[in-house]
Predict the 3D structure of the following.
Amino acid sequence: MAAHAPRNVAVLGATGSIGASALDVIARHPDRYRVSVLAAGHNVDALIALCVAHRPDHAVIADASLYPRLRDGLAGAGLSTRAHAGDAPLDALVADAACDTVVAAIVGAAGLSSTLAAARAGKRLLLANKESLVLAGELVTGAADAAGADIIPIDSEHNAIFQCLRSRQAQGDVSRIVLTASGGPFRGRSRSELAQVTREQAVAHPKWSMGPKISVDSATLMNKGLELIEAHHLFGVGRERLDVLVHPQSLVHSLVEFADGSTLAQLGLPDMRTSLAVGLGWPERIDSGVPGLDLLQHPRLDFEAPDTDAFPCLRLAWEAMEAGGTAPAVLNAANEVAVSAFLQGRVGFLSIPALVEDALAALPATPADSLEALLEADAQARRLTERNLAGHLSPMSAEIR
Ligand code: NAD
Ligand code: MG
């Protein structure tokens, strides 16, 4: 039993995959945590249903046109939950006394503003929204340092690294961080075999159940590229100490090699509730609902090098990380536009890396130390990629729709 009042948790992206996992873990520990804020993008009915189940003080829908439905739905359900709409009220709630812990699980650059608000307000920040670190990593980690916010990465790889790094005192003794990658649904395919793959195939991840955008990112290996940039910001290591290893079983979530030759890994079943329980409970370990790993049931652990010819997004992310400045913001924005177009059946799978590469070539990196400069690079890359979509329109798009 926790001796103190329960911690107030804001779950941003509550209707998504990570949101559901977070709410599952929180509901296992009513003495430790209560849900105080729930926020979602457009799915107002799902948000109201979550409010009925978790009775938060506040609910926020990003799409302002849905505010009346949210307000009336909450009242109709007999809830005292206050309705809000838009980004500014969300940022204000994240920053004020409504919560002390924030699960940042909005997908895409749309999550940057609330992630920054939580960091600036010194909250415990359970950071799933990797795009905010790719877009503005130094600003997010700098704000967290200045305000004393603890960032606990929720991405399974970074959560694994976070745990492994707690086995030593100083920074300097880490010789290598190895991110594992499942390889996604198309592991082992050649570039030419990828030309005709469909949305349904791309989002059918072999090991993880996730939202559509990150599922496509896993299929292109852009997810691993974004995670390299994420690791660079979270752990302060450069390219020379970062590596990627394909591990199809998704049981080893990442590895850290130390100066003395020790390599530590974190293992577990592929279920995001483990990372979320680490984030909620740390430094204590709490029940996540995930059973322990029985290696006799999973006796094989395979490892192979990533294929950057078939999956150029990983190479593009390495290059953007090395270029620095605005390049990761351009990479991320072009990727968001391209993935969205792919999910709508407008362009083929191979157009995703092509569109990202075009954006990086057309918008060379410039130094960027302000949020305005990064948001401008993000907006420019979105406009450019929207225009470039015309040249990629899929011959299959009509029949897919
Ligand atoms: P998802 O698509 O399942 O859910 C996204 C959530 O964000 C939804 O609740 C949606 O309503 C909300 N949202 C979208 N736009 C919004 C906006 N403008 N304002 C407010 N809310 C908005 O996505 P997911 O798989 O849960 O992923 C969420 C984040 O976590 C992503 O950044 C992803 O990369 C990261 N992540 C996810 C997993 C996973 O297993 N799903 C693993 C690691 C990291
Ligand atoms: Mg991950």
Observations:
- The chain has a mean pLDDT of 95.
